[in-house]
Amino acid sequence: METRLRRPLATVERLWLAADAVAPPYANQVVVEGRGVIDQGRLEDAVAKASQANPGSRLVLKGALQGCYWLDSGLTPPVRCLKDVTWDGRGSENAPFLKTALTYHGPICEVLYLEGSSGVTRLVFRSNHGVMDGMGTVYWAEEVFRGLRGEEPLGPHAEPTSMVAFLRQFTERTRKIPPVNCIAPTGEARGLYAGTRWQRLSFTGSFSKVLGRVGWALARSARHYGHGPVMLAIPVDMRQRQPGLRTTNNMSMALYVEVGPEDGPEEIAREVKRQLDERYDCMLFEGGTMVDLIPIVLLELGLKLITLHCHHKGGYSSTALLSNLGRLNRDNFCGGGFQADTVFLIPPRVDGIPAFVVLTGCADRLEVTVSLPNVLATEGRFERLLDDIDRVLR
User: Fold this and answer.
1) DSSP labels for 235-249?
2) What is the DSSP string of 42-111?
3) Could you tell me the CA-to-CA distances from 19 to 36, 76, 283, 317 in Å, in that order?
4) Taking residues 119-147, what's their average pLDDT?
5) How far apart are CA 18 and CA 304, in angstroms?
6) Element containing residue 122 per DSSP (H, E)
7) In angstroms, rounded to a whole number, what is the distance separating the alpha carbons of residues 124 and 138?
8) Among 89, 95, 185, 203, which residue has the least CB neighbours within 10 Å?
9) H or E segment and range at residue 21
10) What is the pLDDT of residues 312-337, one digit of tens each?
11) 20 dihedral zone (left: phi>0; alpha: psi -120 to 50; beta)
12) Strand, helix or coil for residue 352
């Protein structure tokens, strides 16, 4: 008899589910853009095969409070095929299919197959952040393409059962929760506009110190509007701490890098390296596990109140969340008659983070997606920030 996957709900996953309840969908959306036509039945078979091997893509939430756990539903994530799509892949306009909720009752993941009217084909791999992080979603997408190429999925390997136990292999040290006093990269909140919007910037060529350069652009933009602390929250993929680890699970922890008025890209890159060398990414927050005692519905209310307070006071836990997924192998996203040109990730929607920036790309392509809450994107401020980022990368 086959054993169904069951694992406890991690503390950070409880927070992500509350964030999803506040502003759905709080989802990772990996977009593979290219050319060619994939047979729908063949795609559905590849998704079923990849998800059977990686049941983290088909979980549902069970239990309550500290007893919450994920359980394999056994149901393959749906594949939705849409034809003559007018979305250009450059921003949040004309893409209602990206707003469909992915709830912890299931389905928690899905695949979109979009045939564009311009001849461009896109596949979008969507996962609720409560079950996967960005790199977990990338891995699941790679598994689907293995199926499209007629290869066997690799499945998970050396998957940890507890994030806390995994981190404590590397350090017993803890860290304090950052103060909520950082300034935003586009100034103060204005208006009562719910939601977020995002835009994608694309570059070709060779690039170095991209994270430091974009972080510098965000810091400079924030200081254009006012004075105060500037802090970058930088997610780190913890899979790199254990060679051979393969999993779709949430395995991201954040570094917090303060950027002084005189700091440039070099200083940002140096501070990131220092914190990685000293294993700051492996440190738990003091008192963080108390979150496990709070029902998701109360966390949802708390996040709503915190978001309103931050926008009202103009102080946030970070100036921006800056995620670098790195350079991906384009060959891993080809198969079944489809040839990939590039891969990018749409930032999860979250109204309480002043800016959410994701860096990724393939070969000589760099993709930068930037998301802002609508209250911070008005009066040309979003466009100015995009210009600031564009200038440091040209």
Assistant:
1) EEEGGGGSTT-B-SS
2) HHHHHHHHHHHH-GGGGEEEES-GGG-EEEE--PPPPEEEEEEE---SSBSTT-GGGG----TTS--EEE
3) 36, 25, 22, 15
4) 97
5) 10
6) strand 121-128
7) 10
8) 203
9) helix 11-22
10) 999 999 999 999 999 999 999 999 99
11) alpha
12) coil
For residue 282, what are the CA distances in angstroms to 70, 131, 180, 275, 319? 23, 20, 22, 10, 22
CB atoms within 10 A of CB 314: 17
For 333-354, write each residue's pLDDT tens digit: 999 999 999 999 999 999 999 9
Residue 250 C-beta-side C-alpha neighbours within 13 Å: 25
Burial class of residue 374 in the structure, from the number of CB atoms within 10 Å of its CB (0-12 exposed, 13-18 middle, 19+ buried) = middle
Q: pLDDT tens digit string along 203-248?
A: 999 888 999 999 999 999 999 999 999 999 999 999 999 999 999 9
Which residue matches tokens 């103009």? Answer: 314
Closest CA to 131 of 112, 105, 157: 105
Could you give the angle at the alpha carbon of 258 between the alpha carbons of 256 and 261, nearest 5°?
160
Interior CA angle at 242 toward 368 and 369, to 5°?
Answer: 10
293, amino acid identity: L
Per the CB < 8 A criterion, the answer to whether 353 and 23 are in contact is no
- Whether 48 and 144 have beta carbons less than 8 Å apart is answered as no
How far apart CA 138 and CA 205 sit, in angstroms, is 23
Sign of CA dihedral 354, 366, 244, 241: negative
| Residue partners of 239: CB distance under 8 A and separation at least 6 | 135, 245, 246, 247, 251
Residues 81-125: tens digit of each pLDDT: 999 999 999 999 999 999 999 999 999 999 999 998 788 999 999
Cα–Cα distance measured from residue 177 to residue 30, given in angstroms and rounded to the nearest whole number: 29
Q: Give the tokens for residue 382.
A: 């979003």
| 231/216 Cα distance (integer angstroms) | 11
> Is 182:311 a contact under the CB 8 Å cutoff?
no
Task: Please tell me the distance from the alpha carbon of residue 9 to that of residue 292, in angstroms, as a whole number.
Answer: 9
